[in-house]
Design goal:
The complex is a heterodimer of chains A (about 150) and B (about 550). Chain A is α/β, with parallel strands linked by helices and about 150 residues long. In chain A, about 30% of the residues lie in helices and about 25% in strands. Chain A has a seven-stranded mixed β-sheet with strand order 2-1-7-6-5-4-3. Chain A is globular, with a radius of gyration of 15 Å. Chain B is α+β, with helices and mostly antiparallel strands. In chain B, the strands form four sheets. In chain B, strands 16, 17, 18, 19, 20 and 21 form a six-stranded mixed β-sheet that branches. Chain B has a five-stranded antiparallel β-sheet with strand order 1-2-5-4-13. Classes of the chains: A alpha/beta (about 150), B alpha+beta (about 550). The interface between A and B is large, with 40 and 45 residues. The complex binds iron/sulfur cluster. Iron/sulfur cluster binds next to loops of chain B.
């Protein structure tokens, strides 16, 4: 079982469609209805391929096989800069200290295991969210943050 | 000197608070040891052979007296009264307690310092020329750019979990004192044909177990494009770098395996997208940063006392010849304070020595101090007229060793005395070599010679680029030392060449002796340096002297 964390709280899964796996079934994405098509991708996906694919979907879920695998952050940034405006979800092994990095890279929400939530209760995730603002990056860059690029 | 504004101060304090929380989470079990490890590393805390080690960043090697005194205070209060300056312009404390680390980090924040990203798989402390802002040969001061990079890379959301660590160095002089060709990214400040200032970007250099010379990725990058371009390089590496084998995870391997052209194409593509909504820092912010690095108000009054002291005091003259470098202002000089007294641990400084240097800098040095990657301290702006007084104070503190750039100015990593990864000791080897040649009183006759020692193939002691490089290995439980010759860390970058089978611990100092004696015998004149001789003759005469037996058999 997994839980979704959005805005620092445990949230209901708003995405009503289904996620098609990259690699199999990708040609015929399935969904409850056609505008709720989701795409599941591994962190090893080629970024250009991902940007090309994503536009056929209303949600993309990027896998974090290990918290030490930081590819998902760059994939999210690439997708947002490439103009993807749908739902972007990080799923897998993330720890609360990575939550602000995920948000700042362009994710909307994250999906973690119940076991992780037991170890790292929702208060930790809510607290981590405080660190989305006031970053060096914001001060330094005359730019829209990635998460507003969508 | 860059001074923190409310923003920097707030950020660093928040980081300390956060790390205190992470320590609590680890203790409560909310974080596993595996999960805690990258977080403590990101804050400079290592687990060493005997204890925790805290690595504190000295961004681009720049300090002032207040910061130096605080480093001394920390050494006294929470450590054993000394600190170790490293080849990456950091200072390491070898004996802090986990429960004290929060307090140490707050004490650092009190003087605008931190330990953020001195370790872990993220962008590390940016290093630079230790003579920046003072060197006579400088095109432009690299420190404002280095500070920009520090801010950009600190807590960058995409790049905290890279495949491996990432090191950036920058130089503003054609004479490369920052070893830019041995970094993940090396940056050289250059001008194009139209005379505009920009950067040459070198990528994929590194030492370690697979030493590689960096390659030029972009010959000329306009100044304004620097941060978006660095972001493109890092993003390309983050996505494509190998994660299946930590020994193949550095950017140099990615470029070696995939080719420079492929890497360049991917980077340029990422750059196109990133540049669209990332214009780099505002002119106002850049100008604000640059303001902090304006030269001090020089006092150009000269004095005959200086010339007289040179004539009257041979020890002072010798110090002047080795440890004093030309300044861009003819009334001034750059002083190298050697942390390599014969028999001492290279790079170690006691709290008293730190305070002495702080006092001198405050009184005679426009309050500026640098840390060099060669593990010495630098007083970048000393009036020549004040040199005799400065020298006298250094003599009193045991800091006037006249050996900068000479044989005993050895770079050595901590090795088996501290480091959990070591396969051999390096500090005692450095000490013995220094003592041996001090007894012979030959150092000045030998002239410029850089010996660099690493205690394992990770090469923190830069042995690949030593004129003489020494690598400590473990051969069936016995310490052995492999020698390389002809390495060069400067703009004429070269990796050293292995001379032959390694030497057991009791024969390494005699072997170095043999190499040096051979050089003295075969050099064409006293002006021909060791490296010049080596380049002229190649390794043959040295091999013959080192391995007479084998050569006889072969003949
Ligand atoms: S070279 Fe090896 S022994 Fe020396 S500090 Fe680095 S890891 Fe430790």
């Amino acid at each position: 079982m997994t839980v979704i964390i959005r805005n620092g709280e445990i949230a209901e899964d708003h995405f009503k469609g289904r996620f098609a796996c990259f690699g199999d079934g990708i040609a015929v994405p399935v969904g409850a209805d056609t505008d709720e098509k989701g795409l599941d991708v591994p962190s090893s996906i080629d970024p250009d391929e991902l940007v090309g694919l994503a536009f056929g979907f209303s949600a993309v879920r990027i896998d974090f096989p290990s918290f030490a695998d930081g590819r998902g952050f760059s994939l999210a940034a690439r997708l947002r800069r490439g103009g993807f405006k749908g739902l972007l979800r990080a799923r897998g092994h993330l720890i609360s200290d990575q939550y602000p990095m995920a948000i700042r890279s362009g994710f909307d929400e994250i999906e973690i295991s119940r076991e992780m939530l037991e170890r790292q209760p929702v208060e930790l995730w809510a607290e981590a969210l405080q660190r989305v603002e006031g970053t060096y990056f914001q001060r330094l860059c005359a730019r829209r943050p990635v998460r507003e690029a969508a | 000197m860059y001074i923190y504004d409310d923003f920097d101060e707030g950020f660093v304090r928040e980081r300390v608070r956060q790390f205190r929380g992470q320590i609590e989470q680890r203790i409560s079990g909310a974080l596993t040891e595996d999960e805690f490890k990258p977080l403590r590393l990101m804050n400079g805390l290592y687990l060493q052979l005997h204890a925790y080690m805290l690595r504190v960043a000295i961004p681009y090697g720049t300090l002032d007296s207040q910061k130096m005194r605080q480093l001394a205070y920390i050494a006294d209060k929470w450590d054993k009264g000394y600190g170790h300056f490293t080849t990456r312009q950091n200072i390491q404390y070898n004996w802090p307690k986990l429960t004290d680390v929060g307090d140490i980090l707050d004490a650092l924040a009190d003087v605008d310092m931190h330990a953020i990203q001195t370790s872990g798989n993220c962008v590390r402390n940016v290093t630079s020329d230790h003579f920046a802002g003072a060197a006579a040969d400088e095109i432009e001061d690299p420190r404002p750019t280095a500070e920009l990079i520090r801010q950009w890379s600190t807590d960058h959301p995409e790049f905290q979990f890279l495949p491996r660590k990432f090191k950036i160095a920058i130089t503003g002089s054609p004479n490369d004192r920052a070893v830019t060709r041995a970094h993940d990214i090396g940056i050289r400040m250059v001008r194009n044909d139209a005379g505009e200032a920009g950067y040459e970007i070198i990528v994929g250099g590194g030492l370690g177990r697979t030493p590689m010379e960096g390659k030029v990725l972009r010959e000329f990058l306009p100044k304004a494009d620097l941060l978006p371009y660095l972001e493109a390089v890092l993003q390309t590496y983050n996505l494509a770098g190998r994660r299946d084998n930590k020994y193949k995870a550095r950017i140099k391997i990615l470029i070696h395996e995939g080719g420079l052209d492929d890497f360049r194409a991917r980077t340029e593509q990422a750059f196109e997208t990133i540049r669209k909504d990332f214009a780099g820092p505002s002119d106002e912010l850049a100008a604000n940063i640059a303001r902090y690095f304006e030269p001090p108000e020089f006092n150009n009054v000269r004095s005959h006392g200086f010339e007289k002291a040179l004539e009257a005091n041979p020890a002072f003259r010798s110090f002047f010849e080795t440890n004093v470098t030309e300044h861009r202002n003819p009334a001034y000089a750059i002083v190298t304070v050697s942390l390599k007294a014969h028999g001492a641990t290279p790079g170690d400084a006691t709290s008293d020595q730190m305070r002495t240097v702080a006092d001198i800098a405050e009184r005679y040095g426009h309050d500026e101090i640098r840390v060099s990657h060669e593990q010495n301290l630098i007083l970048p702006h000393v009036r020549k007229a004040d040199l005799p007084a400065v020298y006298a104070l250094l003599v009193d503190a045991g800091l006037a060793t006249a050996n900068a750039g000479l044989l005993s100015d050895i770079i050595a990593c901590p090795g088996m005395d501290y480091c959990a990864l070591a396969t051999a000791r390096s500090i005692p080897v450095a000490q013995e070599i220094a003592q041996r040649f001090d007894e012979l009183k030959l150092e000045h006759e030998i002239g410029p010679l850089k010996i660099k020692i690493s205690g394992c193939i990770n090469a923190c002691g830069h042995h690949h680029v030593g004129h003489i490089g020494i690598l400590g290995l473990d051969r069936a439980g016995v310490e052995n030392y492999q020698i390389t010759l002809g390495g060069d860390a400067s703009e004429a970058f070269a990796l050293g060449e292995r001379v032959g089978p390694s030497f057991p611990a009791d024969r390494i100092v005699p072997a170095i002796d043999t190499i040096v004696t051979t050089y003295l015998e075969i050099r064409e004149s006293e002006e021909e340096t060791f490296l010049e001789t080596y380049r002229r003759t190649g390794s043959a005469p040295f091999k013959q002297a080192l391995y007479p037996e084998e050569n006889r058999h072969a003949a």
